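Ticket #165: bound-state structure for coenzyme A.
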Amino acid sequence: MVTLRTYTLADAQILSEYIKHPEVVINLSDGVPNDYSIKDAEEFINKALNENQFRFAIEYNGEYCGGIGLDKIVGHCGHKQAMEIGYWLAKPFWNKGIGTHVIKQICELGFSELNLVRIEANVFEYNKASMYVLEKCGFIKEGIQRKGAVKNGEIVDSHRFALIK
Ligand SMILES: CC(C)(COP(=O)(O)OP(=O)(O)OC[C@H]1O[C@@H](n2cnc3c(N)ncnc32)[C@H](O)[C@@H]1OP(=O)(O)O)[C@@H](O)C(=O)NCCC(=O)NCCS
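RESOLUTION: The complex was predicted; output attached.
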């Protein structure tokens, strides 16, 4: 069974272990350090809680296994009904349908509870699994921002997807 719940500081140690796995962190925004420490995790969790961010820990059969959230989009001309989705799962939990399930769930919450009309996702060019899962969840690819992102000092294309209410 897959559930979403609020983070607690007790998640920090396992969060840091899971997220810094090279096959996970390579797909996340360049702001996520490759050597993600417990202190980084604690800061992330405190910020999520203190700023009342729309972020959730993912549990699979009661076990913490990843995170998902909706973030404000910077520079969107004050559009408050559009947000960006971000998500990751620990490697041992891949390919069990969890990603598809939680992306659908948080999008429904975003549309119903946050009154969103648009949810965006930005995916590095090499992340085929994430693109495939987004399309399974109804997202449409709107285009490719050529050389639009940086990861570990490399410039890469960024594929833009969106789901509309
Ligand atoms: C992207 C991610 C969340 C997907 O979660 P998941 O729980 O493994 O996804 P699901 O099990 O729901 O679906 C995976 C599907 O992708 C397919 N897939 C796996 N690897 C693939 C690849 N390299 N290319 C294309 N499809 C792939 C699987 O076969 C499966 O398809 P199916 O449902 O038809 O069987 C997970 O891989 C992850 O955490 N990756 C690292 C972090 C990340 O990429 N975050 C997103 C940044 S944009």
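RESOLUTION NOTES: The chain has one domain: 2-120.
TICKET STATUS: resolved
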